[in-house]
Design goal:
Structural class: alpha+beta
Distance between the termini: 67 Å
Order of helices and strands: EHHHHEEEHEEHEEH
Number of strands: 8
Strand content: 15-25%
Helix content: 40-55%
Strand order of the largest sheet: 1-6-5
Number of helices: 7
Length: 242
């Protein structure tokens, strides 16, 4: 079966929600079965073990954290997933990276402690105030290139929406890929290439902000009120009496 990579806006957010359920205590078997019943199999392999599916979904969840940190300018989220170190560990197989007057070298550990943690070395410009953003961007680009290098893309009939004015006509290209996993990473690629959307911190859906300071998908909408309610219910630290 083919999957339309540009059609389902809820696809990646559904993965984030499923992983969060499991991290909060729901059984993997139940959560992943419910997700698979709606979305299908990641690959064409009908015998893929549950643990492999879990690791695939969890990897996407962690990559989404990097993308969300970039899209929302959330440096604290990037720092939670990327650890920079001065302990350089280049060996003879590494490409030689030379520092200059304008650059400095750092080791970056991405997703430290995870089964898919990565160690990279980056040469940063000395005026780079957000090196974690640079690491996240390069890691996402390299991961997407790797995941999609063998992807088979089919052209599909474009959808055309027309308004009263000629300027209202919109052509939407349709791309189709062979597996659900390819569709997920294709969505990632499209979002990263567009580079004009934020990610709602509540529902995890991408949205185009009307204002630069817009945080939620709909201003004063359901996600805004959900976040407000969560802040209200969050236990406050006890007061320290003098």
């Amino acid at each position: 079966m083919d999957y339309d990579a540009m059609d389902e806006i809820d696809l990646i957010p559904s993965i984030i929600k499923t992983v969060e359920k499991i991290l909060n205590g729901e059984k993997k078997t139940k959560a992943i079965k419910q997700w698979s019943q709606k979305w299908g199999l990641l690959n064409s392999d009908l015998t893929q073990p549950l643990e492999e599916i879990w690791l695939e979904l969890y990897k996407i969840y962690k990559l989404w954290e990097l993308y969300k940190g970039l899209a929302n300018g959330d440096i604290s989220l990037l720092k939670a997933n990327i650890q920079l170190s001065d302990e350089i560990e280049l060996d003879q197989d590494d490409v030689l990276i030379i520092e200059s007057e304008d650059t400095y070298l750092k080791k970056a550990i991405i997703f430290k402690g995870e089964e898919f943690s990565v160690v990279e070395h980056h040469n940063f410009m000395k005026d780079d105030n957000n090196p974690e953003s640079t690491v996240a961007l390069f890691h996402l680009a390299e991961t997407l290139e790797k995941e999609l290098q063998n992807c088979t893309i089919f052209s599909h009939r474009m959808s055309i929406s027309a308004g009263k004015d000629i300027n209202d006509i919109k052509f939407t290209p349709a791309l189709k890929v062979s597996t659900l996993k390819e569709a997920i990473y294709m969505q990632f690629y499209i979002l990263l290439s567009e580079n004009n959307q934020k990610i709602c911190p509540v529902c995890n859906k991408p949205f185009s902000p009307n204002r630069i300071d817009q945080r939620y998908c709909i201003p004063k909408g359901p996600c805004y009120h959900t976040a407000k309610s969560r802040r209200y219910r969050k236990p406050k630290p006890p007061k320290i009496l003098a």
